[in-house]
Write a structure and sequence with these properties.
The chain has 409 residues and is an alpha/beta fold. A hairpin with a 5-residue loop joins strand 7 and strand 8. Bound molecules: adenosine-5'-diphosphate-glucose. The site of adenosine-5'-diphosphate-glucose has 24 residues, from strand 1, helix 4, strand 9 and helix 8. It comes from Cereibacter johrii. This is Glucose-1-phosphate adenylyltransferase. Belongs to the bacterial/plant glucose-1-phosphate adenylyltransferase family.
Length: 409
């Protein structure tokens, strides 16, 4: 979008929804929420959305946090707060804002609980973003489309193959872009003649007229209001919902909510050109310096195809010259692999050290016994899993060792 055409965003505010747990990422989200997880070296998932917002000129933002917000809060305060004007990046944690142990009971409830603050600042439009997707987008373009359509609610829409559409809100639109039906995660996805073989789905990115949103939040009682289940169906019924179709046929947009998707998307950033702009990286701490080192190693991997072979450096007492093989695998910040390790389709959790000679990803039964293995074959390895395996092997070996000692005594 050319500068002269950019909409005035001085009365536009953003709410970034960052409270979801991301339970399908299992142990990775046991201590930090999904938006705080590392992605592409030292970055975190949330950085993609924040970088989009910053590039789009959205300068005032509430971040609605809830599940395990500590790492996320630290990251936002140390990395992002200085890029917003003083007091313009505001963390609003659910239990603190609502005064209830439950916190925000739904995505729209997170906006409802912060509504008074937004209304007191003369906000006209609200941009609502999810904090856990990987993509590049100019939200100013969407705000301009929202204004041009005259609708009270605008939903960013992409298309996906029909067999994946049940994970999303599925929309049908008129040619002019008005949304005529919205089904939140339907078990059966109706065929859409507008996009043969595919389905139009909500990306969970919205622009609302704030007064209109406030009025519908008043109609829907309780503190569990959800955009997909409550607000959008109502907006469609009222004829107030418009679709903003993302540009291009192959728009890069990834929900990295499962171990398979999280691993695959990071591989897309390791090979050749990044599929979308990478957020800037600033190594602000020792932890991030280590992560940056990991990233350098990953970039070296690009030189290889069909797998990566590293000649192990002299580490501790290990013999040099043993090859470490990484195939379609991701080392998260601070992870280390010792010489002689072979990893296939493996995610090594942050700070985890894989001991010398271990082979992971080649024997599904063995992987499932010690680690977390998905049906698709992604294996997650964490420090406690390796410790359990080591303890168990110790138990198996000990009696044998004792009896030998007994014989020789
Ligand atoms: N209580 C809470 N407080 C604060 N933040 C919270 C929250 N619960 C969830 N969030 C955050 O809100 C965003 C959306 O999370 P949801 O789990 O509700 O959406 P889901 O992805 O299932 O569907 C939605 O997003 C997909 C696109 O991914 C759409 O297709 C679908 O219609 C839409 O409902 C995430 O960033 C999450 O972290």
């Amino acid at each position: 979008m050319r500068d002269a055409q950019r909409p005035d965003l001085s009365a536009t505010f953003t709410v970034l929804l960052a409270g979801g747990r991301g339970s399908r990422l299992h142990e990775l989200t046991s201590r930090e929420c999904k938006p705080a997880l590392p992605f592409a070296g030292p970055r975190r998932i949330v950085d993609f959305t924040l970088a989009n917002a910053a590039r789009s000129g959205l300068t005032r933002m509430i971040v609605a946090t809830q599940y395990r917000p500590e790492t996320l809060a630290h990251h936002l305060e140390s990395r992002w707060a200085s890029r917003f004007a003083e007091g313009s990046l505001r963390l609003r944690e659910g239990t603190a804002v609502t005064g209830t142990p439950q916190g925000y009971g739904g995505t729209a409830a997170a906006v409802a609980a912060n509504l008074a603050e937004l209304q007191s600042e003369g906000v006209r439009e609200l941009v609502v973003l999810a904090a856990d997707h990987i993509y590049e987008m100019d939200y100013a373009d969407m705000v301009a489309a929202h204004r041009a359509s005259g609708a009270s609610a605008t939903v960013a829409v992409d298309t996906v193959p029909c067999d994946r559409a049940s994970e999303f809100g599925v929309v049908r639109t008129t040619e002019a872009g008005r949304i005529e039906s919205f089904l939140e995660k339907p078990a059966v996805v109706p065929a859409d003649p507008a996009v043969p073989g595919r389905a139009q789905v909500s990306m969970g990115i919205y622009v609302f007229d704030l007064d209109w949103l406030a009025s519908v939040l008043r109609i829907i009682p309780g503190n569990t209001q959800d955009f997909g289940h409550d607000i959008l169906p109502l907006a469609v019924a009222l004829g107030e919902a418009h679709a903003y179709r993302v540009p291009g046929d192959n728009f890069y947009w990834r929900d990295v909510g499962t171990l398979d998707a999280y691993r695959r998307a990071q591989l897309e950033f390791q090979t050749g050109d990044a599929p979308c702009a990478l957020p800037p990286r600033i190594a602000a701490s020792e932890h991030e310096m280590k992560a940056a080192t990991g990233e350098l190693i990953q970039f070296a991997f690009r030189m290889q195809t069909g797998g990566i072979a590293l000649q192990a450096p002299r580490l501790g007492g290990d013999r040099p010259g043993r090859w470490t093989m990484l195939d379609e695998s991701v080392l998260l910040p601070g992870a280390r692999v010792a010489p002689g390790v072979r990893l296939t389709r493996t995610i090594v959790a942050p700070g985890t050290s894989v001991p010398a000679g271990l082979v992971i990803g080649e024997d599904p039964d063995e992987d499932a016994r010690w680690f977390r293995r998905t049906e698709e074959g992604t294996v997650l390895v964490t420090t406690p899993m390796l410790a359990r395996r080591a303890a168990d092997r110790g138990r198996l070996v000990a009696p044998f060792a004792d009896s030998r000692m007994g014989r020789s005594a």
